[in-house]
Design brief:
By secondary structure, this protein is an alpha+beta fold. The protein is built from 10 helices and 19 strands. The strands form 6 sheets. It has a 4-stranded antiparallel beta sheet with strand order 1-2-6-5, covered by helices on one side. The protein is globular and about 70 Å long.
Amino acid sequence: AEPIARALDDGADIIITGRCVDSALVLGPLIHKFGWKMNEFDKLAQGSLAGHLVECGAQCSGGNFTDWHKVPDFSNVGFPIVDVRPDGMFKVTKSVNTGGLVSFGTVAEQMLYEIGDPQCYALPDVNCDFTNVSIKEVSENEVEVSGAIGRAPSSTYKVSATYVDGYKATSMAPMIGPKAAQKGYLNSISTIKRCEKVFAKMGLGSFEEYNIECLGSGSNYGKDIESSEAREVVVWASVRHKKKAAIEAYAKEIAGASTGMAPGFTTMLGGRPRPTPILRYKPFLYSKELVDITVNDSEFKSSNTEFSLTQPQSPAEEIVSVINEGEHSYRLEELAYLRSGDKGDSANLGIICRDKSLYDALNARLTSAAVKNHLSHLGKDLVVTKYNLPGVGAFNFVLDNALGGGGVASLKSDPQGKAIGQIFSDFVVEGLKEKECYNLK
């Protein structure tokens, strides 16, 4: 953010950066406007949080919101605006006469979006602690945010590298009729087996990986295809191979399913798939001292000389005894807001209590073990870590090895974990009182 501020100090109207952390596009102008020093870490943390909340546009003002049915006029959704004070406190609102919604829920969901340890949200300019942030509705479509704490950043930058690791192709085809999921799976696995017989003759070897999902049968919920009663599904079949020629051969063989396999195949959506390179994500840390930064062709040196040698971390998960408060059971969505996102092969699942009176009850029931058990179908190597954010009555779960490589490397239909929050909204919470006891309708 500091080089952006320097460019603004020099009178720039338009700034073109290299690879830059999203939130710096807001923090940089704030440093310029208010003259913040690079060791005023609480202000930098608040400015970074403001940037984090608006970096994904309308996701802060009603987009991807759990209570989507309460958001007016998606066709004219208003983009969020942050109004920041010199001390770092700020309000979130949106343009007048627009659709969308700015509320505690929309802002809290976005704060938890794609974060890891909330006590150490590491950025180039500051390490942020969001655990005790306060989010308060002050008027219609206006929310006040305060309480982010900042600490000295590390002496390294995060580098997001990628490398090519073979090719993939994905086909999608509707299957209609009784036992649609079973027939769709049979056609796809038969095509894969047929291809591998051809590969053997071509000296190409087998597919390195394949993934078949029958969308509409509960595949993303971990349900067994054999027990599905769906009468119409879309079959998602994705394959991976080191050789482009193998993927090209697969694309040709798919057509055989329309005339030589189980009935109900209607069309190939988008035509035959084409090979696309698999780009794997490989992040690493790189010393700031080794990176040369220039602003308007002049060498730039940061004014911050204070670095943290160790990164703060949230304490280990504390297992709390479950107290049976009543005889009622609820879907989690009735009690909390949920949002999920990704970082490489990891996903995060943010859960925010609709009322803080639910915090203790949900804290005891929403353990890393409970989350892993409910989402075990995401992968055999799934690792779940829990973090608490008592300030807003929330929990953040980091799910490592959950996305099949993540992004363009994944063969899954949800390669960025966007639906995990929706899937987990069906988690059943037992042993609670009537909703009115938690200030819920």
